[in-house]
Write a structure and sequence with these properties.
The protein is of the alpha+beta class. It contains three helices and nine strands. Bound molecules: zinc ion.
Length: 170
């Protein structure tokens, strides 16, 4: 059986990245990814950008049953935790299912540690003065936009301005 290399971020499923090639015609200059849907046995192609946006590579410690989704993919029951990983989406580093509670706790701890690490990096990035300035500028631009939009709505309105009837002349 072919081992899946990727899964769809939203729909799940097992996919194998087969090849990459440069597109021609309207796709001239674009890198295309050739991939196979293992379950349906259908080979298709998409742009590299679309591929990276909608599919993700399967890591070695992703659960081999649900491929990291954490819920039952076989019966497509999203509210049912996957039996292969107890709903965590991850298994042991060697790809094996945790055999007891301690091993399961290890897997969970690994997930938490990775997220803490990521969170810490985000916090540091957010604390940069350049990021704070960019966020503030974006917020101000949004407020200006919204005021301009409201004023436009008022001007386009048919005599119903703030405070009831708007004086329209004539
Ligand atoms: Zn699983």
């Amino acid at each position: 059986m072919t081992k899946p290399t990727h899964t769809h971020r939203a729909q799940g499923g097992r996919f194998e990245q087969v090849d990459e090639q440069m597109g021609g015609g309207v796709l001239e200059g674009q890198l295309l990814v050739i991939y196979r849907d293992i379950d349906k046995d259908v080979t298709s192609a998409t742009t590299e950008g679309d591929w990276r946006q909608h599919w993700r590579p399967i890591a070695k410690d992703d659960c081999p049953v649900c491929l990291g989704a954490g819920h039952d993919q076989i019966k497509k029951a999203k509210h049912q935790p996957c039996g292969g990983c107890f709903g965590l989406g991850k298994v042991k580093a060697d790809g094996e299912k945790p055999a007891d509670l301690w091993q399961l706790a290890d897997v969970a701890l690994g997930i938490i540690k990775r997220q803490q690490h990521e969170l810490e990096q985000r916090r540091q990035a957010m604390a940069l003065p350049e990021v704070a300035a960019a966020l503030q500028a974006e917020k101000e631009a949004r407020i200006t936009d919204s005021v301009a939009h409201q004023e436009q709505q008022w001007r386009d309105g048919k005599g119903h301005g703030p405070g009831g009837r708007r004086y329209v002349g004539d």
